[in-house]
Every structure is written in structure tokens, then in C-alpha cells.
């Protein structure tokens, strides 16, 4: 759970800075957030979470 909250905060900060620097428009930000929301409710959510956990464990073992 702590990893998920941290990744949400990290992606939120990236999105904030992209919006602030006008690299990403508000419409595209809403589309990206909607895509992430709907992707989380599909069968792809489990493999994505497993991949994220594996990458985090690999980085921490370095």
C-alpha cells in the first residue's frame, strides 16, 4: 500500500509540473487520468502492479 501511495504522489507531482510548464494541456491531463482510472479496472491492472513491484524490488536490491 505504501508503494502505491508513493507512486500516486510521484505521478501526481510529474503531472503537476507538466501542467505548470505548459508541456501538457488540461484536456490531455484529464484524458491521461481517465485512462489510468479505467486501466486500473481492467485485467491489465494485476500484471502492471506485479511489474511495478518487481522493478521496485530490483532497484532496492542494487
Structural description of this entry:
With 62 residues, this protein is mainly alpha-helical. It has one domain (2-61). It contains 3 helices and no strands. The chain has helices at residues 2-20, 26-40, 45-61. It is flat, with a radius of gyration of 14 Å. The two termini are 22 Å apart. 0% of the residues are buried.
Largest sheet properties: none
Low-confidence stretches: none
Q: How confident is the prediction overall: mean pLDDT?
A: 80
Number of domains: 1
Oligomer: single chain
The helix-strand sequence is: HHH
Radius of gyration, CA atoms, in whole angstroms? 14 Å
Shape: flat
Number of E-type strands: 0
Helix tally equals 3
For the record, give the distance between the C-alpha atoms at the N and C termini, rounded to a whole number.
22 Å
Proportion of strand residues: under 5%
Helical content (DSSP H or I, runs of 4+): over 70%
Which structural class matches the secondary elements? mainly alpha
Amino acid at each position: 500500500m505504501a508503494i502505491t501511495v508513493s507512486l500516486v504522489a510521484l505521478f501526481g507531482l510529474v503531472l503537476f509540473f507538466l501542467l505548470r510548464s505548459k508541456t501538457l494541456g488540461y484536456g490531455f491531463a484529464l484524458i491521461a487520468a481517465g485512462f489510468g482510472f479505467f486501466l486500473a479496472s481492467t485485467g491489465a491492472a494485476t500484471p502492471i502492479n506485479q511489474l511495478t513491484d518487481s522493478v521496485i524490488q530490483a532497484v532496492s536490491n542494487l
